[in-house]
Amino acid sequence: MGDIVVTATRREAKLQDVPIAVTAVTGDTLAAADVSTVRSLTQVVPGFIGSRNMGVFQPVVRGVGSTGISIGDEPNIATYVDGVYQPESAANWIDLVEVERVEVLRGPQGTTFGRNATGGLINVITPDPSFDFRGKASLRVGRMRRDAGDYDARVYFTGPLSENAAADFAGLFRKNDGYIDDLVRGGTLGNQRVIDLRSKLLFEPTDNFKVVLTGEYFNQESTTNSPQPLDGNTAGRRFPGVILPTDAWQASLTEVPLLNLRRWSGALHTRLDLGSVLLETTSGYQLLRWNQTTDSDASNLRLGNFPATFNTESGSQEIKLSSATPGPFQWLVGGYFYQFGGSSFLQPLTAANPTLPLAGPTLTPQLDGRSFAGFAEGTYEVQPGLFLTLGGRYTTEKRSYSQTLNGVLRIDDAEKTFNKFNYKVGVRYEVSDKTNVYATYSTAFKSGVFNMAALSTTPVNPENIKAAEFGIKSDPLDWLRTNLSIYYYDYQDLQLQARDAIGASYILQNAANAEIYGGEFEVFVRPVADLTLRSAVAYTHARYEDFPNAQGFFPRADGGNDVVTFDASDNVMTRAPEWSGNVGFDWGHDIGNGRITFAGNLSWSSRVYYDFANIFSQPSYTLINGSVSWTPESERFKIGLWVTNLTNEKVLQTVRPGALSTDGFYEQPRKIGISIETKL
After folding, report:
1. DSSP secondary structure, 236-297, as one string
2. In sequence order, what DSSP letters do the residues of 561-620 get, joined into one string?
3. 27, 208, 298 from 98: Cα distances, Å
4. C-alpha span between 86 and 80 (Å, rounded)
5. In 3D, which of 313, 194, 336, 211 has the Cα closest to residue 265?
């Protein structure tokens, strides 16, 4: 099967030796499954859902995931790119332009990674520049419904600048025409244009010292935040002149929505090999500008709109010292500093009926904060094949919050400090050189958060999770790999967000507790050199406990929802399907002076609920992607045909219940196209 080296424990190790439930997907596998963004990892990673709300990426792992959309309300599934923490949900629309692999760690990572990794994390690793020149360019052209075009152009090249320096460049231009019928103005909505440019500079002045400098620019313009009412459930139904969608990929909105995002980021990595120890530093910086307007009632009548602007800036610094020589005791210690700040303009607008002008408060919140953490972890081989791991992390975080309402300062520098110690205890036993069993008990937390869309000086409490896990990783045959993990979570003070009783703005609250347990089983088979098979299944039992003050939305006969506080205890948690999984393959065969390759991926899920009362949901679904390509013997280029969402399944990315409507956004319909890739 071959070994995959991962950094899931903050040091390089073989995937099968790491006592963590982690799915590592290589760049080749991502391409074969047609996974081009972090959100679409749903199709290849068990127990993972790449949910979204408007322009906010909201990943969920094993039922754990945030619902917040405001600045400072960071997701509890952490995202890292080359070791740099990506704090803002809106900025995590990460395109996988050129990657070595993506690691998805399931379960709390509260010690070595730490920050807001309550349920797990996504770790994207891109290649460093090479001293050997190489490059490639690719173009994909596809078509969707209504003859909407889909275009994706990518380029990557790398090479030496001198004996001690090398550089690379990765560029992406992605564009799709609108695939959502505009029932008001004619034409379409849902168009998107993305530009992503990234470059690295590698400097190696000596054999034991390396510096990597990274810069990236991301720019997105789109109207993909075009919601449609589910089953016609909108308050607009109460008034004459309403136009209601009758099928998926239709929208009837007062005005064309807007979802524009610009992100600048930079990173500096250093690595110094001191012989017995390794000293590494990672510095990160991010600047985000995000503008959006979204129809709050999902109808062509002027009942609600939500314009917003978000501006954030953040920086981080980590220093890590670790053992670098073989021995029974392996260790690492480190320190982490993170500073963030941002401001917003929020104006939730509503009207009692379409004849009245939209009106609402203007909120301009300001958030600042900083976080310090120290961490350590050690693994000792107690006896041959038996390893004991102990780890801990102490975090202190301070947040300050100001709020201006209609131009008048109402909250001036509300402050709160959160301190927390998290720990991990683990044991791993090598049953044989091809089989490992492990058990861990760990904790993690997500810091308390101020509600940026409110006038409260009291933040919600931090989230806390206690997790027990048992796993088996085995390569029983040279062509077979099987990994099993089972877990139990005690999840306390969940931070949950929902639309308020007016219908445009949002509230933020703590649910008292939740219980989650389940497991995943992954199988990889390579019976012959030309064929690779992979499959995974995940079971998740996720229930709220002691949640008496949940906000419920109950459909009205005339459209919209009544907003009622109710007891959601024992209800299924949102975005936590009981069953999900995937099956994929790639098969190649030499033909004449070239090679033909077939690849496919099928992902499926049982019902997914999107509200605390378990009224609104996405029924069970299946998504199928496939491709066939031909490469000549010279391997200088590759041409192919591909299809995504082969059966044209109507799959909701999210459902947003509120007083004015229950609306949602669908995944893209079936796309069919051609591709060409050439090596430079």
Report:
1. GGGSTT-----SSSEE--SS--EEEEEEEEEEEEEEEE-SSEEEEEEEEEEEEEEEEEEESS
2. EEEEEE--TTPBPTT--SEEEEEEEEEEEEETTEEEEEEEEEEEE--EE-STTS-SEEPP
3. 8, 26, 37
4. 6
5. 313
pLDDT for the residue numbered 502: 63
Predicted local confidence at residue 489, as pLDDT: 97
Quickly tell me which residue has 């803002």 as its tokens.
Answer: 88
- Give CA angle at 477 (475, 479), nearest 5°: 95
Q: Which tokens in the block code for residue 673?
A: 């196209």
Q: Is the dihedral of CA 120, 372, 71, 176 positive or negative?
A: negative
Look at residue 501 and tell me whether its pLDDT is greater than 70.
no
- Here the tokens at position 333 are 């210690």
Q: Where are the beta strands (DSSP E) in 433-460?
A: 435-446
Provide the pLDDT for residue 110.
83
> Above 90 in pLDDT, residue 114?
no
Would you place residue 75 in the very low, low, confident or very high pLDDT band (cuts 50, 70, 90)?
Answer: confident
Check pLDDT > 80 for residue 303: yes
Handedness of CA 33, 665, 516, 388 (dihedral sign): positive
Closest to 221 measured CA to CA, from 260, 189, 263: 260
Query: Nearest-CA neighbor of 651 among 674, 629, 672, 621?
Result: 621
Q: Let me know: does 642 contact 677? Beta carbons within 8 Å.
A: no
Burial readout 534-562 (b: 16 or more C-beta within 10 A, e: otherwise) = bbbbbbbebbbbebeebbbbebeeebbbe
What average pLDDT does the segment 40-67 reach? 85
**621 vs 569: CA distance, rounded Å:** 27
- pTM above the 0.85 mark? yes
User: Any idea what DSSP says for residue 127?
Assistant: P
Q: Is the pLDDT of residue 568 over 60?
A: yes
Structure tokens at 387: 């390893």
Q: State phi, psi for 264 to the nearest 5 degrees.
A: -115, 135
Share above pLDDT 70 across residues of the chain, in percent, rounded to a whole number: 98
* Average pLDDT of the segment spanning 194-213: 96
Q: Which two tokens stand for residue 622?
A: 């299946």
Nearest to 100 by CA among 82, 117, 113: 82
